[in-house]
Amino acid sequence: MTATAQPRARLGVDIGGTFTDIALDLGDRIVTAKVLTTPQAPAEGVMSGIRAALDDAAIRPDAVGLIIHGTTLATNALIERKGARTAVIATEGHRDTLELGYEDRFAEYDIFIEKSPPLVPRDLRFSVPERCDVNGQVLRMLDTQAVEHLVPQLRARRIESVAVCFIHSYANPAHEQAVREILAAALPDVAVSLSSDVCPEIREYDRVSTTVCNAYVQPLMASYLHHLAAMLADAGFDCPLLLMLSGGGLATLETAIQFPIRLVESGPAGGAIIAGQIAAECGLPQVLSFDMGGTTAKICLIDDFRPPASRNFEVDRAYRFLKGSGLPVRVPVIEMVEIGAGGGSIAGIDRMQRLQVGPHSAGAAPGPACYGQGGTEPTVTDADLMLGRIDATRFAGGRLHLVRDAARQAIASRIAAPLHLDETPAAHGISEIVDETMANAARVHAIERGKALATRTLIAFGGAAPLHAARLAEKLGIARIIVPAAAGVASAVGFLRAPFAYDVARSRHMRLAAFDPHVLNRLFQEMQAQAQEIVARGAPGQALSETRVIEMRFIGQGHETSLPVPVRALEAADAAMLQQAFHAAYAAQYGRSVAGVELEILTIALRIEVAGPPPRSWPPAPPRPAPEPIECRPVFDASVGRLAETPVYWRPDLPPGTALRGPAVIAEPQTSTLVPGRFDAQIDPAGNIVLLRRTADAAIAKEAPA
Predict the structure, then answer these.
(1) How much is the mean pLDDT over the chain?
(2) Which helix (DSSP H) or strand (DSSP E) does residue 151 occupy?
(3) Distance of CA 5 to the CA centre of its chain
(4) Interval 288-331: pLDDT, tens
(5) Are the C-beta atoms of residues 443 and 453 closer than 8 Å to each other?
(6) Is 211 exposed, middle or buried (0-12, 13-18, 19+ CB in 10 A)?
(7) What is the average pLDDT across 89-94?
(8) Cβ contacts of residue 544 below 8 Å, gap of 6+?
(9) DSSP secondary structure string, 539-590?
């Protein structure tokens, strides 16, 4: 009789600005690890975390069947301007598109406005004669000699990467492809990014910016990913390495190296995915995802269990939260708001003697003062330690022992003394400021999208979110909070639940009055083949699902409305269907539509993904009383304004059905959940901590599905 093969484990790795999180799925349980990120050599931190998780699970590298990785390296390289020495080759007359941008002012009344300088300075931007029109017809053939004459200049300037961005190349990529062939032959070590590959869509500045960002980080990401793959192989891993994409899908190593710009929001995407799945498992169609780590907090409004998707994103905003002040990137992303509010956010006093927190972070090195690594600036983590919310000996799974005296000294000297306060009220002030910053960002995000917050459930995860979730919920009027299992490394867990998927979009201008289904069908077939090929590399032989979208607008408008379309060959009669669907969608979004105005199609898009499993379900759990706490310690109680002895429970000791009343702290290896006195806590059948606010408003939560 042949023994049944044991299923191989799966490993999720998330590099954040402060911590690198590891989630090892063994099938019947998840083993986690949290280690400090190593900014100068990020692969070292990854391997350190992986070794810690394997040691805790007592398994060897060859027992792992899949590694899924998300990283902030591409984002950090763009923000810190530490990418490759990049050149741009543009159509003659379009050399300065990158600097002209939208030709507007994102802060029109600010006479001291400062725009971030372009990633590529003018002396590294070149142009050559060529031209295609909006339909892809060649108006001027590419001057190949002009391209060849650029080769010595690129070599002399030690160019490492080139972005080729020709006007209307989304409609006809032939000229860009010819440039790549010339450069590949003459400069084989130089990376080349074509706008027709990276972003084959209309809007010249967005396409150029996206392609330049891709070229800027490509050598760095290629080097890092090849190095990490080699280290994993040397350590004995013989499994595939997949990369988390910012749109919520997965891609192979080769795809990630070719299009590293698609990794810019890969970590937060994992968090939104896990929040959407928890919402589905709990039957909660409207939730607010709250992910607070060491460097930033991410907030996402999720309706009907699926995180909202977008293809517009900005990196490195010069003005906080102000649209237009960053680098536009047109790639598939999960739509969310990111705030410079994390455990490492630095607190200080401004010139008007006001307490401010963030957006600057102490990062992993030196980190908060309590890390004992030389940091002297007070941070949110220092405040949480002073308020008794964190156990200094169990932080990050006990791998990092916090120094309480260092936190006290930092807060006393930088915050308490200037404000003439004691250390404890000063620490509470830091916590209140960062909570209000996050609450305000959530309010603005919801208002911009016409969404209500009070009726939602808050799903809190990340190393710092469970500590601040209750106060954030109070500020937003939310009565129910869910803290999932393995909350401290939930984004890494989300990687393991992400579908293998790939998005493709192409622009094709067409008036609806001249609707040609054959052109659109041909494009959809080409896009389908491209996406299926990429997905099949990582998920061969698995069942695939496909969604399609057409973006339309009134002629003369600047923005489009997305319309889902059936996955089949379009016919001439579908023009009427598209017209009717557009008017209905437009009226739903803006309150009314406009009759008698001609419509036009600008972009089509599709997504291919592996069909995921249905939401899991668990049998009801009988009520259980809370066990004895593992300890009691002083925790700040805002209702009385002082530290009060508070019971601390160890989360692994709380089985489903356990109920307890606040105030309390529920500790676990990678985070702790603060249960204020105004909340009750219970463990649901899935092992999630559910907090319910004991107020009249809590009736909202009790009416929601369990």
Answers:
(1) 91
(2) helix 144-156
(3) 36
(4) 999 998 888 999 999 999 999 888 888 877 666 567 778 899 99
(5) yes
(6) buried
(7) 96
(8) 532, 535, 608, 609, 610, 611
(9) STT--EEEEEEEEEEETT-SS-EEEEE-SS---TTHHHHHHHHHHHHHHHHH
Question: How many CB atoms neighbour CB 166 within 10 A?
Answer: 29
Q: Which of 568, 557, 569 is nearest to 516 (CA)?
A: 569
DSSP-based helix, strand, coil % in the chain, nearest 5: 35, 25, 35
Q: How far apart are CA 512 and CA 599, in angstroms?
A: 6
Q: Are 34 and 399 in contact (CB under 8 A)?
A: yes
Dmax over CA atoms of the chain, in Å, equals 81
Q: Show the tokens assigned to 413.
A: 């000297």
DSSP notation for 203-221:
-HHHHHHHHHHHHHHHHHH
Backbone angles phi, psi at 578, to 5 degrees: -65, -40
Residue 374 contacts by C-beta under 8 Å, 6 or more apart in sequence?
Answer: 366
CA distances to 454, 624, 648 from 682, in Å: 21, 9, 14
Contacts 24+ apart (CB under 8 A), 317-322: 318/114, 318/115, 318/116, 319/106, 319/107, 320/359, 321/441, 321/444, 322/106, 322/107
- Interior angle at CA 463, CA 460 and CA 464, nearest 5: 70
**For 665, how many CA atoms within 13 A lie in the half-sphere containing its CB?**
26
- 79-83, 258-262, 277-281, 621-625 — which is least confidently predicted? 79-83
Strand ranges in 406-519 using DSSP code E only, listed in sequence order: 457-461, 480-483, 501-511
What tokens does 223 get? Answer: 């080097």
* Residues 88, 539: Cα–Cα separation, whole Å: 35
* Residues pairing with 22 in the sheet: 13, 33
pLDDT in tens, 454-482: 999 999 999 999 999 999 999 999 999 99
What the chain holds in terms of domains, given with CATH numbers, is: 9-77+223-263 (3.30.420.40), 83-216 (3.40.1360), 345-432 (no CATH), 501-610 (3.30.1490)
**Which candidate, 704, 665, 670, 702, places its Cα nearest to that of 292?**
670
**Whether the predicted pLDDT of 702 surpasses 50:** no
* Whole-prediction pTM: 0.89
Alpha carbon separation from 258 to 251, 499, 585 (Å, rounded): 11, 20, 36
